[in-house]
Design goal:
By secondary structure, the protein is of the alpha/beta class. The chain folds into 4 domains: 9-220 and 384-417, 3-Layer(aba) Sandwich (Rossmann fold); 259-372, Pre-protein croslinking domain of SecA, CATH 3.90.1440; 436-573, P-loop containing nucleotide triphosphate hydrolases (Rossmann fold); 615-790, Helical scaffold and wing domains of SecA (Orthogonal Bundle), CATH 1.10.3060. Helix 4 packs antiparallel against helix 5 and helix 5 crosses helix 8. The structure holds adenosine-5'-diphosphate (ADP). Its main location: membrane.
């Protein structure tokens, strides 16, 4: 091997693929630049179209595409892609994840790669993390795509079904991951092939790939509806039972009520520590024996733990969760008389999202708000499953290398580290560690005030919205005037972020993931660039570390873009949540300076260790959740395959001819073949969907139950789960068919489906189950195990 080659390989970062071959293609594209400039627009578009035939695999074709794409961007957008951007394009076209720092121009690289993938004959979805970015990027890149001879479209939350269909029919579609997931879920309930919205999956090009593929991967996207309106026993009140509002408690009365409002009142009267305990790490809350007695007394002397009172116990637990674990302005805000969730990872209001029904109602009750309608889960899918459907995947992000192992493990994706266009000169100062959060907060204000005195723009990152507010208050008391970013809408936020680099600006924000807006030095128009640069460029101040170093890097990466001057410093405290939660056994009682500064190496080690433990826990949760979901995914595939045969074919009618032959003949005589075939189709679809939704509910209960049973008994919950879930899954299709045949036999001669009990949901809604503050069941199960292994008990138990 030539020495140069060996040196180049040495310089390559571990975990990252070799970019040498890509750079060679880019160099060739550079040599073609002059030729391409000579083409007029029509000739340029035609030259791109010619590449369609080649499949865009050979280096020469890729180089031709890069040259044409660069020229098109120059003409359509006024930006000539840098060589490193073209390296990014090639990485994306090779089906890998490109790590490109903030401000390097990922939007443009992604748009060119999307066009390249489209030339290969597949539809491309450019998946973003929110509506704002999907629409912004699609509109921004539209002239480029048009010049390349491609159509493009975008989907956002408000898009109507027709608009969605049109957007998905384009060569390139920009959409938030969640909207594509919701469209898929809705399509899976379609009763008419013409109502389908999504085409076959082609290429997924994922923006902020680590956020989507790792952090949010196991988040269920949920479709719920008011599907099942059979009267149930819990709403039918017989005269001799107490009425639901009857809380007048006398000792000889049975359970009075399971209304959330009453339970909220009840738990509000309980005293933390005495009546219930919370466990920081497991994020669980439990009644103490004294608390249980208090609840039992208030509910009329019932035995709370008797099997008959399980619904009451559950309801009390939900109320307790809402009371003790969910904090207003941290986990949710109340706006316009409704509870709006704050997405923990992004610190923003998550539109149209709600917690699982019981919990949502409990929080509404806690805040004394009117209850919003509940429903049942019709289907759900995780982001990982959604992405797994695409035969071709690629992505881009500023922070990929740190999760290269997971991208490989879960998606078979490799990472390519693309060097910056101009060398980075950002100065990252070593961490400053303080004994207490209070010491740290004082120091943070000082650091910001000092930087500001010199006119230096400052971006301060906090762990959550409440911390942002606290910091802002401290800054205002110090005579400063910060702009606080939290829980605003994405577009307004983008405008504020764009100004964060202005001379003298102070911006306070929670986590930066999903805030895909560039921070230019000197403000959005760069007016004050020189002054801001002279003052040292953007200074990023982190107040405490996040639960992964990647999130720290995302914040840090906002400074020093495109070779600008800039700096970053993190000020952490030994009392930060991250440290007390993940390194509970490590304590430091050595010396501290007067201002609380701790320089001891061991103490610094503890802070770093806590973050590594947190990262390890997150990874185990991901793996564990994936194991559960894998089985459910396989079962869903069976149901969907059957559904497709019924929806698009005559499997429904064939089933009835076979299993209900006599009635089929009678109905055909009365109503005609077509009407009977249509009714058979609807009946089978209805029962497939209903069987599936009930199966999901059953699996959820099963998991909850197994989780409780296996804790402390050394059983493997997954094995226990599979033992029951596998046979239940095997019965699914047979159960659905039996139910459909039975319903068919009850069809009257006019084939009136409502007479056969077919009631489709009159309303459906979607949410991201993400924001369950104590995590998904798997997370709780896993955290419980961690707590057991480390012998940790609740704080006050
Ligand atoms: P990223 O998503 O990588 O942080 P963006 O796609 O938001 O970066 O781009 C950052 C800024 O750089 C945008 O204002 C964009 O217009 C600009 N930009 C991107 N590529 C180029 C280029 N080749 N020449 C000049 N400006 C560019």
């Amino acid at each position: 091997m030539a020495l140069r080659e060996r040196l180049r390989r040495l310089a390559q970062r571990p975990g990252s693929a070799d970019i040498g071959p890509l750079q060679a293609v880019v160099a060739e594209a550079g040599r073609r630049e002059d030729d391409v400039r000579a083409l007029d627009d029509a000739a340029l578009t035609a030259a791109v179209a010619e590449l369609r035939e080649t499949g865009l695999r050979a280096d020469a074709d890729l180089a031709a595409f890069c040259a044409l794409g660069r020229e098109a961007a120059r003409r359509a957008l006024g930006e000539r892609p840098f060589d490193v951007q073209l390296v990014g394009v090639l990485a994306l076209l090779s089906g890998r994840v490109a790590e490109m720092a903030t401000g390097e121009g990922k939007t443009l690289a992604g748009a060119l790669a999307a066009a390249g993938h489209a030339l290969r004959g597949r539809r491309v979805h450019v998946l973003s993390v929110n509506d704002y970015l999907a629409r912004r990027d699609a509109e921004w890149m539209r002239p480029l795509h048009a010049l390349l001879g491609m159509t493009s479209g975008w989907v956002v939350q408000e898009s109507a079904p027709d608009e969605r269909r049109a957007a998905y029919a384009a060569d390139i579609t920009y959409a938030p991951v969640s909207e594509v997931g919701f469209d898929l879920l809705r399509d899976r309930l379609a009763t008419d092939p013409d109502a389908l919205v999504l085409p076959e999956p082609g290429v997924a090009l994922i923006d902020e790939a680590d956020s989507v593929l790792v952090d949010e991967a196991m988040v269920p996207l949920v479709l719920a509806g008011n599907a099942d309106d059979e009267p149930t026993t819990d709403t039918a009140v017989s005269p001799d039972e107490p009425t639901p509002t009857d809380l007048a408690v006398s000792p000889d009365q049975p359970t009075p009520t399971d209304l959330p409002g009453d339970h909220a009142e009840l738990v509000r009267r309980l005293r933390p520590g005495r009546d219930y305990t919370t466990d920081e790490e497991a994020r669980n809350v439990q009644l103490t024996p004294a608390g249980a007695r208090e609840v039992e007394r208030a509910l009329g002397g019932i035995d709370l733990y008797a099997p008959a009172h399980l619904p009451t116990l559950t309801a009390v637990n939900l109320a307790l969760h809402a009371e003790a674990l969910l904090h207003r302005d941290v986990d949710y805000i109340v706006r316009d008389g409704a509870v709006k969730l704050i997405s923990e990872s992004r610190g923003r209001v998550a539109l149209l999202q709600r917690w699982p029904d019981g919990l949502h109602a409990a929080v509404e009750a806690k805040e004394r708000l009117a209850a919003s309608p509940g429903g049942e889960i019709l289907d759900s899918i995780t982001v990982q499953e959604l992405i797994g459907r695409y035969p071709v995947r690629c992505g881009m992000t500023g922070t990929a290398l740190a999760v290269a192992g997971q991208l490989r493990e879960f998606y078979e994706l490799d990472v390519v580290v693309v060097p910056p266009n101009r060398p980075r000169i950002r100065v990252d100062e070593p961490d400053r560690l303080y004994a207490t959060a209070d010491d740290r907060d004082v120091a943070v204000v000082e650091v910001i005030a000092d930087a500001h005195a010199a006119g230096r723009p400052v971006l301060a990152g906090t762990p959550d919205v409440a911390a942002s507010e606290r910091l802002a208050r401290r800054l205002r008391r110090a005579g400063l005037d910060p702009v606080v970013l939290n829980a605003k809408n994405d577009a307004a936020e983008a405008a504020i972020i764009a100004e964060a680099g202005a001379y003298g600006a102070i911006t306070v924000s929670t986590q930066m993931a999903g805030r895909g807006t560039d921070i230019r030095l000197g403000g959005a128009d760069g007016a004050d660039r020189d002054r801001a640069a002279e003052a040292g460029g953007l200074l990023v101040v982190g107040t405490g570390h996040y639960h992964s170093s990647r999130l720290d890097d995302q914040l840090r990466g906002r400074a020093g873009r495109q070779g600008d001057p800039g700096g970053s410093v993190f000020l952490t405290a030994l009392t930060d949540d991250l440290v007390t939660r993940y390194a509970p056994d490590q304590t430091y009682d050595g010396p501290t300076a007067d201002d609380g500064l701790v320089t001891d190496k061991g103490a610094h080690w503890i802070a770093g260790h806590a973050q590594r433990v947190a990262e390890g826990v997150d990874l185990e949760i991901h793996r564990n959740t994936w194991r559960y979901n894998h089985l459910i995914g396989l079962q869903r595939e069976d149901v969907l395959a059957e559904r497709d045969r019924v929806l698009r074919g005559d499997a429904g009618d064939a089933l009835m001819r076979d299993r209900a032959a006599a009635h089929h003949r009678e109905l055909t005589d009365a109503a005609g073949e077509d009407a009977v075939a249509a009714a058979a189709r609807q009946l089978v679809l209805f029962h497939l969907d209903r069987t599936w939704s009930r199966h999901l509910a059953y699996l959820a209960d099963l998991r909850e139950g197994i989780h409780l049973r296996s804790l402390g008994r050394g059983l493997d919950p997954l094995v226990e789960f599979n033992r029951e879930a596998v046979p239940a899954g095997k019965r699914l299709l047979a159960d659905a068919r039996d139910a459909a045949v039975e319903a068919f036999n009850a069809l009257p001669p006019d084939v009136d489906l409502t007479a056969a009990g077919v009631r489709r949901p009159t309303a459906t809604w979607t949410y991201i189950a993400h924001d369950n503050p104590f995590g998904t069941l798997d997370e709780r199960a896993f955290r419980g195990l961690v707590a057991m292994f480390t012998g940790r008990r609740g704080r006050s138990s």
